[in-house]
Design brief:
The chain is an alpha+beta fold. It has one domain. The protein is globular, with a radius of gyration of 17 Å. The relative contact order is 0.21.
Amino acid sequence: MTTAGAAEAASKRESVPDEKRNADLTKFMRRAKRRGAASCKVISPSHVRTAEWVRLKCQYGCPGYESCLTCPPYSPDASQTPKILDGSARALLIQFVIEPEQDQPDVRRIAAKLEREMFLDGYYKAFAMACGPCEICEECTLDFCVESYLARPSMEACGIDVFATARGAGYPIEVVTSDDQVQNRYGLILVD
């Protein structure tokens, strides 16, 4: 497709009312909520913010750095992520509200399972991203992922500024300074 043809196709996608264009994702949004999500919203991948500095927070300060295949330096980096985002027309941003001393929904498992359901429903490009280091296995082999059907990189590991992305979508997110605070965590599924 030529550049003009791609621009015309994108323009046609944007001209379709959001409700009609995104109605096909409603059932997945309902499934996310049944599994523990507080809210879901379809956003444009162009609204997902990336920055080189985000991975530095992983490298300097996160115990997950170099400890699992879903984290840096093994995950896609901030220079690759915009190219990955450009391959999709829509993304599903999923909000999880974590209350102190309550069972926590497993963002990674929920996002990966929804990705699989979307894929089986014909969204062959569906790809999920989670938050934080992977905790599926007690210790990652760093060789071959034995839980590859569930393991997905965190948005932060891929250089996504989750704070800017969530706030840009109208969602709350704040730095959590103690265990007795409510946390907002997010998952992202690139759809088509």
